[in-house]
Every structure is written in C-alpha cells, then in structure tokens.
C-alpha cells in the first residue's frame, strides 16, 4: 500500500494496491468508495429535516382517518399506501350497496325525515357501512314517495269537495236573504198563502217534493215545472230544507211568489217525529258516517291507478253522502203522512215538459216509478246495470239481485206512498245498511252505498 501526496497541497489522498507502472511513477486509480464532502452533507441534512416531519404528519393523519373509517387492517393499509384518492373503491362499494338495497327488503323501518338528518346519521355512525347508508336512503325515499302519493290523493279529495261545495256567490245570496227575512215583513209572510193551505193534503192536486238546501236550484225546479205545465194551478210544491237554509229559502219564495202554484217551505226543525223515527234517522246517519270514514281512510292509503276506481271513491266522499237531506229520501212517507202519491224531483233537474201524466200512471202496486238510464234504447243499459254498482261475488247480493237488471235514476221518481208504507221499504233499507256494515262494506261499490 502506498500514499501519494500532491505538491499543491493536501487536497487528495490516493490509496492504491498496485506497485506502479514499472517506470518509477505511481499508478493512479479511480476511487472505489463514495466520496463525502461538506458541500453535500449540509443540504442533505436540511432536506431531511424538512421532509421527515411532513412525512410523519401525513402518515399520522392517514392512520387516524383510516382507523375512523375502515373496519380492517387491509383498508388501513390500502388507504395508507394509495394516498387520499379513494373515489374508485368508494364508488364500487356504494354501487354494490345500492343494488343490494334495491333487490332486498328494507330492514330499516324508521327512515330519516330529511336529507340533513340522513347526513348527520352517516357522519356520526362508526365505520364505512355503505349497506346501512343505502337502506337508510331507500327508507327515506320510500317515505317521501308515500307522502307525495298521499298528498295527491288528498288533492283529489279537496278538488272534488270544492266542485260540490257551495259557491261563494250562493253563500252570499243566502246571507242577504236571511237579512231580508229579519227586516222585511213580506219575506216572513206565510207559505203557502192561507187560501192555498188546504191544497197541501188534497190528493186531487199534483204534489211535488224537493229535499234541498240550494235556494237557486229549488227556484229553477219550481219555475221550470210551472212554466211547462198545462195546469200549473194543480201543482203543489213541498220544499224541505235544513234549519240553516230555512230562513233564506222562505224569504226567496215569499218575495218571489209563484202565483198559479202553491209552494210550501218547511224546515226539518219544524217536524215533530216519533221516537222510533228519530232513533232510525240517528242510526242511519251514524252508519253512513262510519261508511264515509272507512272510504276516506282507504282512499288515502290506496294507489288508485284506474280512473274508474278513483271516481267511485271520490263519489263516496262527496258532501251529499253525509247530507241529512240526501238520506231522508227514504223517510218521505214519514215526512208527508197525509199524502198518497208524490213526484220526487232532485234539485239538479230542469223540467222541460208537462209532467201531469205521472200522476195518471198505474204502478200496479209497485212503490216507485223511475226513469231508466238507457243510452241505446230498451235493449241495453251499458254502465248502468246492477253489476256495475253491487258486488255480485258476495252470496248475499248474488242471491237477491239480478246482475243484468238495469239501474234507475234517482233524479225523478213517482212514489206510491201507500204501497211504500205497506211494504215497509224504509226498514228494508236499514236492514241492508246494517248487513253492509257487518260485511266490512263489501256488498256494493264505493259511491253507491247511499243509492241502494
């Protein structure tokens, strides 16, 4: 081993194992090991001093984050070595969880009420459980869909009720007539006039019955029937209304008298019925209120796709289904105990011809004479047969009714009240109401329970 020292100063030391080149000069060789100098050592130390704290903080942050969001060491290692870009794996796991929630049953019965609540639950929950998140999201969306469907059903009910409600103008008219009744003696004059009182029970006159709380509708019926009658002096109109409408109804016909015909306006509060009749009316109203409540509850919970089903349920919920005047049709013999034959007109009827011949009809012992809803002659009545209103799959209906029998309209009828009392139709009506209630309202379709 030889040492060579340069004449220019001690700047380099060369260590060689060779003996030289044979000419007396030493052999110079390249250094075989790393060379370190003060110029490279100081920058390297500074770089390591900056990088090592950063790496320590980064690794600590990833470890803490992974421990909070991952359930396994594999997940922690994957996040540690793959950095913060986890979008691909998150997307795959979330897609898998959503598909599982779509195909499976919703195990989360109590869904969150809002999106903010869902976010709060996901943040506070421990672990990255995408399955739980997917089921919670599904439950929340299902609840929202149910609320939207319920709101749509309720909207249909409100629109239907508004279309059958009392217009503001008609309500204002009733208020003005009620005021007129209090300040105008003529509006309180007796109906009919004393000279026509005897006609009210005279069987030789033509008696027409209206059960209504609509002042203008009653006026249209009375006026049209009188103007189209060959002998209007033979007509006697019996208008029965409720207590709140009695004052405006009386004021209207008192201040707008029909000179030729006799008009009687009577309120339900003016009748003095027996205890049996009062009990029957009360029971009938209670049953119909239960029926209305049943259909209202079912309508909100049903997804009615067909317009026919929707219309039948809306028909069952119309205000007239709870109207006392509507149901008192079945008590006409009790309303007019001294009459033998009457023509019943609904308040949406406009008379265009003389109806005197109705009182000449021979009903052959039948209770009612009615108009069939015939759209194509007497050979058929599409959409208006008993099968369209009643449930013929029930043995009580199939054994008592003919499914192909044409239904009749309730807008204009001629009633033989003596035959009615003899056959006791009112008690039969009550009997079927009770049977329908006991059978779970399965005897006839919605909207037809007050038309039996």
Mean pLDDT: 76
Strand content: 5-15%
Question: From the alpha-carbon coordinates, what is the Rg to the nearest angstrom?
Answer: 47 Å
Q: In DSSP terms, counting alpha (H) and pi (I) runs of 4 or more, how many helices?
A: 15
- What is the ordering of alpha helices and beta strands? EEHHHHHHEHEHEHHHHEEHEHH
Low-confidence stretches: 21-33
Strands in their spatial order, largest beta sheet: 5-4-3-6-8-7
Give the overall silhouette.
Answer: elongated
3D structure, described in words:
This protein has 452 residues and is α/β, with parallel strands linked by helices. It has three domains: 43-85; 98-164; 168-438, Spore Coat Polysaccharide Biosynthesis Protein SpsA, Chain A (Alpha-Beta Complex), CATH 3.90.550. It is 48% helix and 10% strand. It is built from 15 helices and eight strands. It has helices spanning 38-69, 73-82, 87-103, 115-124, 130-164, 168-183, 215-227, 243-255, 275-301, 307-316, 324-327, 332-335, 395-398, 417-423, 425-438; strands at 2-4, 14-16, 206-211, 235-241, 262-267, 341-345, 368-372, 408-416. The chain has a six-stranded mixed β-sheet. The protein has a two-stranded antiparallel ribbon with strand order 1-2. α3 packs across α5 (130-164) and α6 crosses α8. The longest helix is centred in the N-terminal third of the chain and has 35 residues, at 130-164. The radius of gyration is 47 Å and the shape is elongated. Residues 21-33 have low confidence and may be disordered.
């Amino acid at each position: 081993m030889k040492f060579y020292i340069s004449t220019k100063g001690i700047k380099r030391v060369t260590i060689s194992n060779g003996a030289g080149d044979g000419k007396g000069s030493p052999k110079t060789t390249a250094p075989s090991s790393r060379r370190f100098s003060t110029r490279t050592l100081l920058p390297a130390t500074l770089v390591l001093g900056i990088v090592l704290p950063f790496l320590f903080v980064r690794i600590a942050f990833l470890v803490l984050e992974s421990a909070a969001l991952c359930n396994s060491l594999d997940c922690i290692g994957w996040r540690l070595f793959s950095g913060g870009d986890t979008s691909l794996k998150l997307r795959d796991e979330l897609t898998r969880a959503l598909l599982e929630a779509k195909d499976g049953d919703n195990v989360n019965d109590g869904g969150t009420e809002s999106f903010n609540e869902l976010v709060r639950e996901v943040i506070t929950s421990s672990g990255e459980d995408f399955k739980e998140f997917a089921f919670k999201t599904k439950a929340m969306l299902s609840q929202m869909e149910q609320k939207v469907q319920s709101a749509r059903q309720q909207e249909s009910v409100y629109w239907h009720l508004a279309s059958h409600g009392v217009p503001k103008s008609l309500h204002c008219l009733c208020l003005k007539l009620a005021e007129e009744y209090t300040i105008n003696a003529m509006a309180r004059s007796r109906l009919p006039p004393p000279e026509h009182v005897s006609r009210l029970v005279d069987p030789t006159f033509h008696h027409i019955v209206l059960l209504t709380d609509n002042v203008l509708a009653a006026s249209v019926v009375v006026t049209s029937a009188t103007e189209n009658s060959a002998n209007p002096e033979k007509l006697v109109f019996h208008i029965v209304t409720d207590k709140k409408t009695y004052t405006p109804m009386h004021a209207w016909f008192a201040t707008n008298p029909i000179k030729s015909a006799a008009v009687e306006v009577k309120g339900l509060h003016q009748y003095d019925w027996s205890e049996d009749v009062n009990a029957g009316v009360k029971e009938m109203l209670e049953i119909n209120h239960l029926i209305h409540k049943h259909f209202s509850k079912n309508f909100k919970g049903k997804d009615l796709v067909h317009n026919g089903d929707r219309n039948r349920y809306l028909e069952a919920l119309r205000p007239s289904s709870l109207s006392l005047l509507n149901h008192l049709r079945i008590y006409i013999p009790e309303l007019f105990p001294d009459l033998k034959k009457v023509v019943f007109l609904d308040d949406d009827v406009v008379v265009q011809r003389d109806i005197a011949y109705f009182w000449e009809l021979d009903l052959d012992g039948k209770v009612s004479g009615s108009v069939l809803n015939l759209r194509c002659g007497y050979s058929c009545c599409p959409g208006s047969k008993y099968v369209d209103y009643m449930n013929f799959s029930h043995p009580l209906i199939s054994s008592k009714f003919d499914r192909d029998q044409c239904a009749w309209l309730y807008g204009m009828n001629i009633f033989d009240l003596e035959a009615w009392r003899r056959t006791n139709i009112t008690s039969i009506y009550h009997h079927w109401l009770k049977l329908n209630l006991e059978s779970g309202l399965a005897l006839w379709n919605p909207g037809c329970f007050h038309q039996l």
